[in-house]
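Review this chain:
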Amino acid sequence: MTGKAKPKKHTAKEIAAKIDAATTNRGGGKAGLADRSGVEKGGHAKYECPLCKVTAPDVKSMQIHHEARHPKIPFEEDKVVNLHATIASESSKARPGIRGSHKK
């Protein structure tokens, strides 16, 4: 019962929040695993450790990982692999199966 015969209504903010929660990848399941690993689009994991191939979202996290897992090797920021840069260069190539890629 909602009280005094007033029907309970959902606000626009609540409905928008439900739609956002239902359609946004929050990182769980197989889709979240692919997103975190950075296999397809780079995902959350932007940087990759050159020694053990572990991924991290930013340079600071990669530095923390490096100090914890590879303490005897000095951290060199220029050796960290940027996954977004490598994937972006591969995806910018024109593919014949996509409409409009070979317009004359």
